[in-house]
Amino acid sequence: MTVQLDGFSVSPKTFDGQTRDVYRRGSGPGVIVMHEIPGITPPVARFATIVADAGFTVLMPNLFGTPGRKMTAPYALGQIARACISREFRLFAANATSPIISWLRALCAEAHAELGGRGVGAIGMCLTGNFALALMIDESMMAPVLSQPSLPAGPSRASKRGLHLSKEDLVVVKRRAAAGVPLLGLRFTNDPMCPGERFERLREELGPAFEAVEIDSSPGNAAQIPRTAHSVVTQDLVDQAGHPTRVALDRVLSFFGERLR
To answer: In the predicted model, is pLDDT for residue 144 greater than 90?
Structure first.
């Protein structure tokens, strides 16, 4: 059943035989907003609204969960369990790309064909964070943002350094990065779901094309950010001028502007 979100239009999109609702708001260059676990929560919708109000057409596919439902621990755990058994997501794969990327690539291509311009942008968060990296294999993707990319899951060194990207796709991503398509990454320094090793790997593979925004969440940090902070631009955003999370959000908006206008 389609759920309405205040301020957004919604329409079904079918690619690869799969139909999903896509929420839309704003005008201007296209930005694909890929929500985090457990779904399009009110903070995610708020972020999408901020992006739209900054002069972009937001396209936000419903990948899992119930749009508009508030975050709770049981809700989040339930959606993680669903993702674990879904054929569309490979939560523990360090060197494989989730099948959902094919559907998202088609959405990017359609958005670019409709909206024109230099290309489209995308931001993924948590479980979808690495998806913005994988979308670089499509020539329409010009502004990928990885917010607390959390796949692959797992405590091993290979998992912490994993990019959730096939070796073949990594070759294409590195080629595009070397040709002048940069990436932006966001994380809290104390976040175990997005370990520092993952950003180090991105630096190793992509060099200066990868711009990292790492927000201090260590004990006693100056901004009093809790050690449990995870969602940079949504759940843990402090929307106050000068706060590190607001600075990070402003960088996301300026990155989209630089790359898409």
So the answer is: yes
